[in-house]
Amino acid sequence: MPAPKKYSDELHERAVRLVFQIRRETGRTQGVIPEVARKLGIGDQSLRTWVKQAEIDSDERPGTSTSDAQRIAELVRDNRELRRANEILKAASAFFARELDPRPPR
Questions:
Q1: Cβ distance 52 to 61 under 8 Å?
Q2: 64 and 56 in contact (C-beta within 8 Å)?
Q3: What are the tens digits of pLDDT across the range 65-97?
C-alpha cells in the first residue's frame, strides 16, 4: 500500500503550472522552483521532481512517462501472477501424475 500523499493533486498541478508560467513569462530557468516552493509552502525537491516528471510527460525531457511507468508496473504484476499460476499448475500436474502412475511406490 503506498504512503499517503503529503500534498494534494490540486496543489501539485498548480505548483507545476506556476513554474512553467514564470519560466515562460520571465525567461528565467534558475531559481524559479525554490521561489515557487517557498511561496506555496512545499519542499523544493518535491516540486523539482514534479516539474521534471511534467517535462518528461510532455516530451521536453527524456525519461519514462507516467503512463509508461503505470503500464510497466501493471505488466510486472501480471507477469508475477502468471508465474505463480504456472508454478501451481506444475505442482498440481506432478501430484496428479504420481496419483495416476500404475507402478507401486518404492
A1: yes
A2: yes
A3: 989 999 999 999 999 999 999 999 999 998 888
What is the reported pTM? Answer: 0.67
Same domain for 90 and 55 = no
Verify that 58 and 72 share a domain, yes or no.
Answer: no
38 in the same domain as 9: yes
Cell numbers placing 37: 516552493
Alpha helices (runs of H) in 6-65, residue ranges in sequence order: 9-26, 32-40, 44-57
94-105 pLDDT, tens per residue? 888 888 777 766
Share of the chain above pLDDT 90, in %: 64
**How many whole angstroms separate alpha carbon 60 and alpha carbon 55?**
5
One domain for residues 38 and 51: yes
87 and 76 inside one domain: yes
Specify whether 50 is located in the same domain as 68. Answer: no
SS3 state of residue 76:
helix
User: Can you give the pLDDT at residue 105?
Assistant: 63
Domain of 69? 64-101
